[in-house]
Design brief:
Blueprint: H1 2-41, H2 50-53, H3 68-86, E1 101-110, E2 116-126, E3 149-154, E4 159-161, E5 176-180, E6 183-184, E7 190-193, E8 196-200, E9 206-210, H4 224-237, H5 244-275, H6 277-290, H7 299-306, H8 310-334, H9 338-346, H10 351-385, H11 394-403, H12 407-435
Parallel strand pairs: 2-3
Antiparallel strand pairs: 1-2, 1-5, 4-9, 5-6, 7-8, 8-9
Helix pairs in contact: 1-3, 4-12, 5-6, 5-8, 5-10, 5-11, 7-8, 8-10, 9-10, 10-11, 10-12, 11-12
Length: 442
């Protein structure tokens, strides 16, 4: 067990190191863009006083806002990273891609009598999408018992060729390949060639490994143009008989219903816990126990309790939103300044007026913040909810595509979910600014 832990930690360390390297590059690009932007804005009348340096710790929540130029540059940089990492044809080649084309290498064979002869293997490496690639034609130049061969290999793949199969005496005991391109080779050794490398297996066969380059394979991350073409295709024809927006609409319906139920039950429960010490003590163990439980862990119980219909999916989203809204409402009520309540009582306000005119308005900022968090969690959980035998939905589309390794559809689904989730958050911010204009003003 200790060895497994050490191995896992070692693998995780290198993964984290790689992520930190990518993040460092991204941060460096951010710094360069910031310098360029500041140089551009230096000649303009930009606000550069104490107000521009204030943060939320100074009590003015709206003092620091996101720089639109930085947001645009960040998105463009992410797409550039995506294109560079996948060898997109929309960009000039920056990272070396996989080898594609014709190449050859020679090998030296030794027969049972100890005689040697040379021959050539002609290799054609084709793009993975080209299913009709043929072996390269060649003119036989070998004069000894070794005969030339031809091989066709998909890019980033490995293929074994038994060169001795067509050599004279190749099946006799003692026949073996001893060199590739003039370099000695033995089992479990490799020799570099123009197209990549040739590896000798334990049984003496040659395995051709074309150079894979530094770009990612489309199976793992397709280039932007491939994802765009797939998006247009899914937009026009749908996927598995269901239209793209039909999938998205079903996901939205589930999220809205689950979120609405979470608000309907969570906000009154939070108010009750914030206003009554007995109810707070009664419900707090349940709320605090369920709060850290991820919705994914509830899927088996949801299936047992509610089945695989829409009730199960909406129930999962309801539970994802319930505890967040409860805690937000409780925090909003508990955070009301007691001086405001005393002032209202001194002016002759009733308990009902205290609740509607003081507690409710002052708790709305916390409730809206919780609502934004809950909506984000629900929208992120919809994929898990649609694991429960869904026939339609963005999550269902992603899950079905992943089973067939259609990474471009998976990427499309992720981007659509992210864009819609961001749009929902923007709408909720606008509603918050409209309905709670006093937020952050004491």
């Amino acid at each position: 067990m200790l060895q497994e832990i050490i191995t896992t930690l070692g693998t995780t360390f290198w993964m984290i190191l790689g992520i930190l390297g990518i993040f460092a590059i991204y941060l460096a690009v951010s710094g360069v863009c910031s310098i360029v932007y500041n140089m551009y804005m230096r000649g303009k009348d930009a606000a550069r006083g104490y107000t521009s340096l204030k943060t939320v710790t100074f009590g003015d929540e709206s003092a620091v806002t996101g720089n639109r130029a930085a947001s645009v540059a960040a998105v463009v940089t992410l797409f550039l990273f995506w294109g560079i990492a996948t060898g997109s044809k929309l960009l000039p080649p920056i990272l070396p891609g996989p080898f594609v084309g014709d190449s050859s290498f020679s090998y030296t064979a030794t027969n049972a009598a100890g005689q040697t002869a040379d021959a050539t293997v002609y290799v054609r490496v084709h793009e993975a999408a080209n299913k009709e690639a043929t072996k390269p034609e060649f003119t036989e130049t070998a004069t000894g018992f070794a005969k030339s061969d031809a091989l066709v290999v998909p890019e980033r793949r490995t293929k074994i060729i038994k060169v001795q199969s067509n050599d004279d005496g190749g099946t006799e005991e003692g026949f073996k390949v001893t060199a590739v391109n003039g370099q000695e080779i033995a089992p479990n050794q490799a020799v570099a060639i123009d197209a990549g490398e040739v590896f000798m297996t334990r049984k003496g066969s040659l395995s051709v490994r074309p150079a894979s380059g530094l770009t990612m394979e489309a199976l793992y991350l397709p280039p932007p143009e491939q994802a765009w073409k797939r998006f247009l295709n899914v937009w026009e024809n749908g996927y598995l008989g269901v239209g793209l927006w039909e999938n998205v609409t079903w996901s939205l319906i589930r999220v809205v219903f689950g979120f609405a139920l979470g608000c309907l039950f969570g906000i009154p429960l939070g108010f009750a816990m914030g206003l009554n010490s007995w109810l707070r003590g009664w419900f707090e163990p349940i709320v605090e126990f369920m709060r850290p439980v991820p919705p994914l862990a509830l899927i088996p119980l949801i299936i047992i309790w509610f089945g695989i219909g829409e009730q199960g999916k909406i129930s999962l989203l309801f539970l994802a939103a319930l505890w967040i809204m409860t805690i937000a409402a409780r925090a909003g009520v508990s955070g009301v300044n007691i001086a405001k309540i005393h002032a209202a009582y001194s002016l002759g306000a009733t308990k009902k007026q205290i609740l509607s005119k003081v507690i409710l308005p002052n708790s709305l900022p916390e409730i809206f913040t919780g609502a934004r968090v809950a909506m984000g969690v629900c929208w992120g959980t919809v994929v898990a909810a649609e694991l429960v035998a869904a026939e339609k939905g963005a999550g269902k589309m992603i899950i079905a595509a992943s089973k067939f390794q259609l990474t471009d559809i998976v990427i499309i689904g992720i981007i659509i979910i992210g864009i819609i989730g961001y749009g929902i958050d923007v709408l909720m911010r606008m509603a918050e600014n409209k309905l709670v204009p006093w937020k952050g003003r004491g």
